[in-house]
Amino acid sequence: MNAACTGLELRIDETAQQAFSSTLAAARTAQSGSDAEHLANAWKCAYGRDPDTSKAYSEAIKAVESASPSVIEPSKAKATLGSSLER
């Protein structure tokens, strides 16, 4: 409970919070698609007020799918998930 005892509080490990924050910041600066948006949605669905684990998983997968082409083939302007898998 919080110090004022006005409600419940979920505590997230500081290391996990820092890892998420730095990953989200990197995703936002990479401008590689909607990966940052999907990552933020996944975190919110996993740790938000109304957790939805199925949606959190789905959003996490979408974040990976969105980020993969630019990470695996950064020099290819029109890389796709399919062309990344061929590598």
Based on the model shown, name its key terms:
elongated; mainly alpha; 87 residues; 0% strand
Can you lay out the helices and strands and say which pair or pack?
Elements: H1 14-30, H2 35-47, H3 53-72, H4 81-86
Helix pairs in contact: 1-2, 2-3
Structure commentary:
The protein is mostly helical and 87 residues long. The protein has four helices and no strands. Helix 1 (14-30) runs antiparallel to helix 2 (35-47) and helix 2 packs antiparallel against helix 3. It starts with 13 loop residues before the first helix and ends with a helix.
Number of DSSP helical runs: 4
Q: Specify the biggest β-sheet.
A: none
Q: How far from one another are the termini?
A: 50 Å
Q: What portion of the residues fall into strands of 2 or more residues? A: under 5%
The gyration radius over C-alpha positions equals: 16 Å
Which spans of ≥5 residues are poorly predicted at pLDDT below 50?
Answer: none
Any idea what the shape is? elongated
Helix/strand-derived category reads: mainly alpha
Strand/helix succession:
HHHH
Could you give the count of β-strands?
0
Task: Give the mean pLDDT.
Answer: 80
Helix content: 55-70%
Give the structure's gist in a few sentences:
This protein is mainly α. It has helices spanning 14-30, 35-47, 53-72, 81-86.
